[in-house]
Specification:
The protein is an alpha+beta fold and about 140 residues long. It has 3 helices and 5 strands, in the order H-E-E-H-H-E-E-E. The protein folds into 2 domains: about 40 residues, no CATH class; about 80 residues. The strands form 2 sheets. Strands 1-5-4 form a 3-stranded mixed β-sheet. Strands 2-3 form a two-stranded antiparallel sheet. The longest helix has about 45 residues.
Length: about 140
């Protein structure tokens, strides 16, 4: 604890470096684009599978011989039709998010986000100076 207080007593904010100099900081959205496009592709494949399964269930529904099989196949058709809509909407949402992040990534490269640069110096009189770098 005493060592921590000793260090804090040597810390002095530099009055000369209060005005920030802005340094370019960029966040890459490539990972977000890939993840959202992959999830969108997965949802799209799920929608395709559910649609084909619903079509096959409907064909079996039309050719069913018993009432029990007819009801079972109709319930499968309804279930897979609902799943097709769910997966299709999910696919659209995630592809739109991927496009959004791609456009944001392109815009980010054209315009930069600027952040101040931190300046830490050790002076001649055994003091540590902290501040934000300013440009002249």
């Amino acid at each position: 604890m005493g060592y921590f207080i000793l260090i804090l007593s040597f810390v002095q904010l530099s009055g000369d470096s209060i005005v920030p100099e802005q340094v370019m900081v960029r966040k890459s959205y490539t990972k977000d684009v890939i993840i959202n496009a992959g999830i969108g592709l997965g949802f799209g494949l799920g929608a395709y599978y559910c649609k084909n399964t619903a079509d096959k269930a409907y064909d079996e529904y039309k050719t069913a011989n018993t009432m029990k099989k007819t009801v079972e196949q109709w319930n499968r058709v309804v279930l897979y039709d609902k799943l097709t809509v769910f997966f299709g909407a999910g696919s659209a949402v995630f592809f739109v998010r991927a496009i959004y992040y791609q456009l944001k990534n392109v815009r980010q490269t054209q315009m930069g986000v600027k952040m101040p640069e931190l300046d830490i110096r050790y002076t001649d009189n055994n003091k540590l100076m902290l501040g934000i770098v300013k440009s002249l």
